[in-house]
């Protein structure tokens, strides 16, 4: 039986499957390169809006080039099925690492988190929110490098507002509260998920555990996770505080950006080595006894390491999980007799006695904080009238302070230009799109604005050329394109087998519709690309013609030398040269010479 194909890829074996599709190992029959091919479920492939969105989103997704992001190669469709191809990584998921080889060093946790934050930083700078950071979507390679999966799903089903059956794309155990309850999702949702991931790497369980999606969502809304330093001993205080801040239910209280998080994590790695200790879960003997009502269970010293039962493993390794409206409103079910739960939690730990009552434990510090907050609220309530009396003055003062201190904090022209210049030198113009717009808007009279405008136009040209390549590869040359664009793409296709004919088509296109500055928008950019490609082909053809001229001239001279002693060989060379040059304008002189010498040889 023939193997299944998706575009240029021949599918060899199934790597994994989940709610958002099946992943195969595939090989590009054109180049022999291997890739991971994700085939979307048929009910998504038949979504007409999604089909149209595929092509529009590729340009942005293909620009996600970062060592910690699994590279997306492209999207496609085969027999009505949508798929995308991505880098094939040799390694295992972080979920498997946590279960089979628990992490022993907090530095390893920080190093992995720094790699993930670094990848998220580039994605966030490009306006892409992942929305499903979890252990199953993070790969650890054989050389201990970190790779983030499924940015394609994040962009196509997240930023565009597409959900599955009215639900939410994501995984409850690592989902930010605002995402779980349908509020606006920002890059800070990814930072919450990364905080939950760090928590799981250290404690070997997610921040909240439950027997159903409903129970987990209930805890996510109303409860606070047990502080990580109560579950895991020998952690630096700065690391515990950072995880607590990332897991704050209010996005405004979290670390502001992935860039800022990278700096915090880098600072942790600079701590002295005497802070390094092997991690182990705390046991009851080192903590205060639990008071009634404590919803967290500390790990008993004699318990085995946390494991994944088969059902939980399947959920942990699924690419995504859907929280539908029906699921979120379903009553919680009891655990089965074999100890496996129906929770969609990615990481679960063995619990103590099944029927043990839940208890609640509050530390002295927590109680003091609550008392302080209550006292503060009472004081604010009693002083409310006084505050109203001076409210007007405070508002006016706030406006003055904003004007004096906030406005001047915007980077000046030199700072913005330096950032643009560095990215331009590194070939990463897409990273400074906003900075280029800011510079042109705020400093139009700056003499460097012309150069910045040129860089921005160059970026637009690159994006348009990528769009043309994609359209050509997917056979959509004539769909919604201007005739200028259609002729340009036809010339590029001709270039694959006849560069001279392609050059002539480009020249005719430029002569008919040019010059480029006489047009506008996409047509003008297309003509600029045509002019560039025409010059490149002209140079390449001229160079090739020169090399062929030298070589053929040498053969003519050789035939002349042997014509007396070996007229048969000389005649063969002359006839061959005539055949090679009969349709080459640049070889007309040598063609005439070969014909004349052939007559001389044959007349003897």
From TrEMBL:
Entry-linked SMART domains: S_TKc
Disordered: annotated segments: 280-379
Binding-site list for ATP: 38
Cross-referenced SUPFAM superfamilies: Protein kinase-like (PK-like)
Protein kinase domain segment(s): 9-269
Gene Ontology MF: a single term: protein serine/threonine kinase activity
Annotated Pfam families: Pkinase
Residues spanning the membrane: 384-407
Biased composition (Basic and acidic residues): 327-340, 367-379
Biased composition (Acidic residues): 294-306
UniProt KW Membrane keyword: yes
Keyword annotations: ATP-binding, Kinase, Membrane, Nucleotide-binding, Transferase, Transmembrane, Transmembrane helix
Name of the protein in its database record: Protein kinase domain-containing protein
Species name: Blastopirellula marina
């Amino acid at each position: 039986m023939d193997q299944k194909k998706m575009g240029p890829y021949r599918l060899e074996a199934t790597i994994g499957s989940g709610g958002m599709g099946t992943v195969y190992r595939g090989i590009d029959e054109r180049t022999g390169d291997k890739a991971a091919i994700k085939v979307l479920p048929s009910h998504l492939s038949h979504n007409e809006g999604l089909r149209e969105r595929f092509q529009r989103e590729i340009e942005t997704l293909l620009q996600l080039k970062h060592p910690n992001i699994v590279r997306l190669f492209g999207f496609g469709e085969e027999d009505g099925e949508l798929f995308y191809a991505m880098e094939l990584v040799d390694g295992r998921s972080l979920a498997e690492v946590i279960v089979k080889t628990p992490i022993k060093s907090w530095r390893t946790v920080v190093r992995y988190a720094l790699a993930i934050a670094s990848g998220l930083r580039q994605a966030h700078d490009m306006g892409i929110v992942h929305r499903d950071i979890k252990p199953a979507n993070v790969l650890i390679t054989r050389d201990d490098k970190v790779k983030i999966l499924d940015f394609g799903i994040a962009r196509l089903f997240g930023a565009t507002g597409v959900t599955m059956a009215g639900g939410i794309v994501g995984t409850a155990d690592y989902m930010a509260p605002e995402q779980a309850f349908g509020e606006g999702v920002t890059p800070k949702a990814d930072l919450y998920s990364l905080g939950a991931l760090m928590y799981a790497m250290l404690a070997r369980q997610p921040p909240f555990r439950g027997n159903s999606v409903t129970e987990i969502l209930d805890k996510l809304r109303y409860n606070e996770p047990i502080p990580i330093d109560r579950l895991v001993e020998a952690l630096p205080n700065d690391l515990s505080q950072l995880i607590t801040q990332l897991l704050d239910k209010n996005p405004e209280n979290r670390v502001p950006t992935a860039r800022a998080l990278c700096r915090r994590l880098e600072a942790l790695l600079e701590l002295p080595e005497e802070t390094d200790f092997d991690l182990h879960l705390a046991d009851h003997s080192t903590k205060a006894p639990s008071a009634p009502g404590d919803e967290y269970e500390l790990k008993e010293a004699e318990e085995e390491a946390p494991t994944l039962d088969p059902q939980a493993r399947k959920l942990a390794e699924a690419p995504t999980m859907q929280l539908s409206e029906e699921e979120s409103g379903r009553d919680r079910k009891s655990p089965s007799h074999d100890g496996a739960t129906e929770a969609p939690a990615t990481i679960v730990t063995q619990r103590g006695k099944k029927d043990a009552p839940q208890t609640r434990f509050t530390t002295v510090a927590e109680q003091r904080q609550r008392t302080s907050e209550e006292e503060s609220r009472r004081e604010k309530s009693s002083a409310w009238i006084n505050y109203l009396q001076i409210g007007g003055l405070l508002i006016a003062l706030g406006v003055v302070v904003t004007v004096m201190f906030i406005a001047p904090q915007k980077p000046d022209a030199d700072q913005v230009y330096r950032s643009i210049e560095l990215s331009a030198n590194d070939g990463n113009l897409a990273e400074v799109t906003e900075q280029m717009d800011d510079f042109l808007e705020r400093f139009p009279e700056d003499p460097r604005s012309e150069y910045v405008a040129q860089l921005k136009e160059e970026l637009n040209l690159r994006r348009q050329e990528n769009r043309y390549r994609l359209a050509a590869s997917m056979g959509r040359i004539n769909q919604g394109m201007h005739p200028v664009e259609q002729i340009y793409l036809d010339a590029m296709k001709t270039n694959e087998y006849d560069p001279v004919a392609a050059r002539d088509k480009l020249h005719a296109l430029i002569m008919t519709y040019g010059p480029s500055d006489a047009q506008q928008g996409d047509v003008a950019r297309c003509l600029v690309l045509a002019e560039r490609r025409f010059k490149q082909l002209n140079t390449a053809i001229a160079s090739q013609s020169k090399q062929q001229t030298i070589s053929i001239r040498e053969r003519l001279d050789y035939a002349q030398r042997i014509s007396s002693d070996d007229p048969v060989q000389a005649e063969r060379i002359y006839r061959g040269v005539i055949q090679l040059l009969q349709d080459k304008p640049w070889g007309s002189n040598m063609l005439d010479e070969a014909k004349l010498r052939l007559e001389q040889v044959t007349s003897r």
